[in-house]
Amino acid sequence: MENEKENLFFEPHKRGLMKTPLKESTAANTVLTEIQPDFGPLTTPTKPKEISQGEPWTPTANLKMLISAVSPEIRNRDQKRGLFDSRNGLPETKDCLHEHLSGDEYEKSQPSRKEKSLGLLCHKFLARYPNYPNPAVNNDICLDEVAEELNVERRRIYDIVNVLESLHMVSRLAKNRYTWHGRHNLNKTLGTLKSVGEENKYAEQIMMIKKKEYEQEFDFSKTYSIEDHIIKSNTGQNGHPDMCFVELPGVEFRAASVNSRKDKSLRVMSQKFVMLFLVSTPQIVSLEIAAKILIGEDHVEDLDRSKFKTKIRRLYDIANVLSSLNLIKKVHVTEERGRKPAFKWTGPEISPSPSGRGPVFPLPCSDLEAKRPSKDNCAKNLFSTRGKPNFTRHPSLIKLVKSIESDRRKINSAPSSPIKTNKAESSQDLAPFPSKMAQLAAICKMQLEEQSSEPRK
DNA sequence: TCCTCCCGCCATATT
DNA sequence: AATATGGCGGGAGGA
User: Fold this and answer.
1) pLDDT of A174-194, one tens digit each?
2) A338, closest nucleotide (Cα–C1')
3) How many CA atoms lie within 13 A of A31 on its CB side?
4) Suppose A215 and one of A56, A152, A205, A220 were both cysteines; which one would form an S-S bond, judging by CB atoms 3.0 to 4.6 Å apart?
């Protein structure tokens, strides 16, 4: 079934716009079918590593301009460091000005950590494709080629592609091949994610966690375990919560594979992370909060510290590509007890309702407007977190969907009310935790206060 | 020091 | 078995 051998088409990019000439001294191989002289083309590079002379930037000079235009911050960072200053530190290396430091150690201009950041890499990646590609032409992406052209190991490309996929900006076609969709559907996807986020009551969960922290700050230390339980029950009252990958109506995943079980972390995590922004009132989410919520959802019994740490690490990865997409930007929240790293949503304001809302503007490409309530899609693509060797669709999740449906009615209101009007409607859903209402009310208040104090650091 | 997060080993999933 | 994917977390660069 996998028509993997479709080498018939070629990359659409690198010709579309100015793109990356890449015609530089070094690499620059803009070959159509990448055939590295050193390695076999069809195997995992594993370590293509640095190509001859280390010139991380020059070949992409104009790309940089492109990037700068989009993200001034990046530009600043670059300027901060002398791009041309090839030698940093490296005491014994007399004067590198003499070009070839020859010898055996030409370790001089090491790209420097920042130049190898995922964020930068993502910018380069994105610069190769138009935001709104013409669906009529071939928009395939060959991971091998990209990895090679950007001079990074494949592993990094997976990181990028995975989150892009979570936003449906790309979709897997076959082994090593993805199709670029760009920002078509992006709003639709975000709308869907927002709906799911509301259904999952992320806003409430966030408040619960904040409340917890708030209390701990005082002396009520010891309320955490209780809180955890509430949160968990709330999400997936007995089974697993929403470990589902939200699909898009029109863009069903072609070429199965993607729907198989192993869809775990990054993709789903990325969607959830985005959901948090979309349901948060001051669209700001701290990594800590995000990590806690994401952890709370699966692995019920986890107080593990290392797990938390790992989660944070993943979030940084995701945040980097989301930042490259200009959907979020890094900020700091100054809460009681110090400032924490957080991110602020800078993406489009998305329409709250999943149904009845079409794209903001009529798109030329007829991407089947299957305007479907998110829950449908969600229900359709549920799979358990844990890799059950045989089942990708966890039966117990069906019930979750049911409950979600019942919740659903609540999302058709409150277009922009600052505080989720949860007390009223959600009271029924939260029935098992009546006392929670009172707490939520209190939290809401805190939330407001916090908001007012957000701006001024 | 703490915040970020690169790097790449190696378990899993696909072919 | 060979490859493709992608969890995961040690540990190092940077502020």
Assistant:
1) 889 999 999 998 998 999 899
2) B2
3) 12
4) A220
